[in-house]
Amino acid sequence: MEIAVVGAGAMGCRFGAALHSAGHQVQLVDPWVDHVAAITRQGGLLVEDESSSRLVELTANLPADGTGSPTLILVFGKAMQTASLIGAVRHLITDTTVVLTLQNGLGNIEAIAQFMPVDRIVAGVTTLGTELLGPGRIRSLGDGDTHVMQADGRQGSTVGTVLAAFDGSPITVDVSPDVQIMIWSKVAFNSVLNTLCSQMYAPVSALPAYPEFWTVAGGIIDEIVQVAAAENVTVDGAKVRQTIAAATDPEMSGHHLPSMLQDLINRRPTEIEHLNGEIVRRGRAHDIPTPHNELIWHLIRMAEATRDQRISELPH
Ligand code: NAD
């Protein structure tokens, strides 16, 4: 199968390498010039894991140079890039192209649907994790689950294309009717942990040190549950709390720095508009007050706006 991965950061590269190993013709497409140049120079992507490092012979192109008529396009940039990425490769989209998004945040399906019919879009969630080590180099972080469904709610040939692509790859993908619930639950998880760690400049394991952590987290989650319900998605707030409690356990992955904090530190834009920001906007549309999410939304945008003036010690 001819496949393009558009937005080939950490996750796009990992999925591209997995699809390549299943025998597909995979092209990475990304606007980061140094990354595309490194992959081309190396003759592929360097993929590390706990025990090895290997070169995966993938090609990479800037969006304007993307070629062919892929059967499947994976969009895997950050949520705020989705519309510009898919718009930049619209020359690759044919009447039969299927697009898959496994990105975090709300609004990815809507952004892709500006360029193609919704019945050719597949959405999903993945718990796989990957780190971008530098141009042309990634590290795969353990295993995880990936669930998908057609964005129109049907189970037809569109999702069949995605399943066929992953058949024989190291990534197991299954179809679940609960993908919208999973997307919103992950939004709730990230709207608490990503944002609060970014405010505190601390790993997830640090948050429960504040005795009223759950007062803050609960306020954010309860509002998201209400907004999701107004969009006919039933999010189980208690389950989100359990997942957050497990994630903050230092014995688990608690010392992890969420991607939003890494983005802030690395002076890159965050996905805040697709987390708490989108909750605020959708809350307004449904007349549901979202004061906790609104304050968090402001605080992260403020952290972005003031990051160059953040002090790490008192001036002498
Ligand atoms: P990423 O930050 O690795 O890449 C996103 C984009 O930023 C790519 O276009 C990449 O080329 C570009 N980029 C990265 N570093 C750059 C630099 N130094 N200079 C210029 N451009 C640079 O994004 P990701 O982590 O792969 O995430 C993609 C989506 O998947 C997001 O929605 C994210 O929330 C989600 N997600 C990520 C993980 C993970 O472990 N990384 C896990 C699950 C879901």
Describe the structure.
The protein is of the alpha/beta class. It folds into two domains: 2-176, NAD(P)-binding Rossmann-like Domain (Rossmann fold, 3-Layer(aba) Sandwich), CATH 3.40.50.720; 180-309, N-(1-d-carboxylethyl)-l-norvaline Dehydrogenase, domain 2 (Orthogonal Bundle). The protein contains eleven helices and twelve strands. The protein has helices at residues 10-21, 33-42, 82-88, 108-112, 157-166, 179-200, 213-230, 237-247, 259-265, 276-285, 291-306; strands spanning 2-6, 25-29, 45-48, 53-56, 59-61, 72-75, 98-101, 121-126, 129-134, 137-141, 146-150, 173-175. Helix 6 (179-200) runs antiparallel to helix 7 (213-230) and helix 10 crosses helix 11. The protein is globular and about 55 Å long. The termini are far apart. Bound molecules: nicotinamide-adenine-dinucleotide.
The end-to-end distance, rounded to whole angstroms, is 62 Å
- Which ligands are bound? nicotinamide-adenine-dinucleotide
Task: Classify the beta-strand content into a percent band.
Answer: 15-25%
Q: What is the name of the CATH architecture of the largest domain? A: 3-Layer(aba) Sandwich
- If strands are numbered along the chain, what order do they take across the biggest sheet? 5-2-1-6-7-8-11-12
pLDDT < 50 stretches: none
Q: What is the C-level CATH assignment of the largest domain?
A: Alpha Beta
Give the count of helical stretches. Answer: 11
- Compute the average pLDDT: 96
Record field, number of beta strands: 12
Portion of residues within helices: 40-55%
Q: Largest beta sheet, briefly? A: 8 strands, mixed
